[in-house]
Design goal:
By secondary structure, the chain is mainly alpha-helical. The protein contains two helices and no strands.
Length: 53
């Protein structure tokens, strides 16, 4: 069960990181911000509370 959980989490994080880096590149920055991750999660239909612009 841990192996399956680990693989699902890995795929999820890879997608979040890839999309957050896309937001970062589009903004012509080199550092990923918390808001890049928030926008990525919102785009995926997952809301993360506690962070705002």
């Amino acid at each position: 069960i841990y192996e399956e959980t680990r693989s699902v989490l890995k795929v999820f994080l890879e997608n979040v990181i890839r999309n957050a880096v896309t937001y970062t590149k589009h903004a012509k920055r080199k550092m990923v911000t918390a808001m890049d991750v928030v926008y990525t999660l919102k785009h995926q239909g997952r809301t993360l509370y506690g962070f705002s612009s």
